[in-house]
Amino acid sequence: MTAMIEQLRKKLPYWVEASRVHTCDGQVASYIPELAKAPRDALGIFITGQSGETASAGDCGLTFTMQSISKVFTLILALIDNGEDGVFDKVGMEPTGDDFNSMLKLELVEPGKPFNPLINAGAIAVSSLIHGDSPPVQIERILRFFQEISGGASLRFNDSVFRSESATAHRNRSLAYFLKDNEVLGEEIAVEDVLQVYFKHCAIEINAEQLSRMALVLAFDGTDPLTGRELIPRRYVQIAKTFMVMCGMYNASGEFAIRAGIPAKSGVSGGIMAVVPGQFGIGVIGPSLGSKGNSTAGVHLLETMSAELDWSIM
Ligand code: DON
């Protein structure tokens, strides 16, 4: 066991409690009604290292839906299914500086082509690229892929969250219809089918430990260090990590890159997946969100740890 994990085990409980006060700076997401049930003052973190060594603290028993964190892995699966050209024909490679569900830039540059695969419009386009004859087949493939990356965890969909989002997702529907109108979604693709795939992968339920295992595979360039199996081609992990640094925390990505300097991806349920390349996979849950949709306490915790442990890759 490394000296670092010993240090983490000792200090983690203090860092978590020092960051927990920042749950007061935010609110639990409520635009998906089911998410509003999450505990506002919760904060937990789970860290997994190369040999399976772990450190954890706080409320890491909490389960939550992946929401936007899932977009990293659907991007990777779409790359595996279609190659780089197939994916980047439909989505761009640039950060937007706008909110995650913004439609502002969709009409500005190449009409209808989303700027990147991590904003909602881009992730909806990516969902349409997952191979499979029907939404149930695509959804099953996504779930199986996620389970494999998480080291064989038995993940499931949270149906209440799925239904809650599907019933209220007027903005995502309008983004998807705009994509359809601009032929980013092909002729054979039904908008409601793509949305079903998108809402389902956002509603995959996970906990901080499982999330840290998924992050660990990214930390080791696509190979699960615990089994030695290559699960993702290294090139696709490079692409995913680059997007995480550029736009994983949406329009707070620049600030997070300056302060923490590690690839990370947040979701509106309050989860954050963070990667310390060559060292650790990290799962954080803190449902209280700031104005840009990131966990307030989770961001504070990761920034504190990165500064203390010199994790920045920059
Ligand atoms: O499409 C949505 O709005 C959600 N299913 C996911 C958004 C999200 O997680 C953005 N995160 N910060």
What does this structure look like?
A hairpin with a 4-residue loop joins strand 7 and strand 8 (271-276). By secondary structure, the protein is α+β, with helices and mostly antiparallel strands. The radius of gyration is 18 Å and the shape is globular. It folds into two domains: 3-64 and 205-309, 3-Layer(aba) Sandwich (Beta-lactamase); 68-202, Beta-lactamase. The model has no long low-confidence stretch (mean pLDDT 96). It is built from eleven helices and ten strands. 45% of the residues lie in helices and 12% in strands. Helix 3 packs across helix 6 (170-181). The longest helix is centred in the first third of the chain and has 19 residues, at 70-88. The strands form three sheets. It has a five-stranded antiparallel sheet with strand order 3-2-9-8-7. The protein has a three-stranded antiparallel sheet with strand order 4-6-5. Bound molecules: 6-diazenyl-5-OXO-L-norleucine. 6-diazenyl-5-OXO-L-norleucine (DON) binds next to loops.
The top-level CATH class of the largest domain is Alpha Beta
Mean pLDDT: 96
**How many helical elements?**
11
Please report the distance between the alpha carbons of the first and last residues: 26 Å
The figure for the number of domains is 2
Counting helices, strands and paired strands, the structural category is alpha+beta
CATH topology name of the largest domain: Beta-lactamase
Biggest sheet features: 5 strands, antiparallel
Low-confidence stretches: none
Shape: globular
Q: What's the count of strands?
A: 10
Bound ions, cofactors and other small molecules, one mention each = 6-diazenyl-5-OXO-L-norleucine
CATH superfamily of the largest domain: DD-peptidase/beta-lactamase superfamily
User: Which sequence of SSEs, written as H and E, runs from N to C?
Assistant: HEEEEHHHEHHHEHHHEEEEH
The portion of residues assigned to helices is 40-55%
Strand order of the largest sheet: 3-2-9-8-7
Rg over alpha carbons:
18 Å
Provide the β-strand percentage band.
Answer: 5-15%
- CATH architectural label of the largest domain: 3-Layer(aba) Sandwich
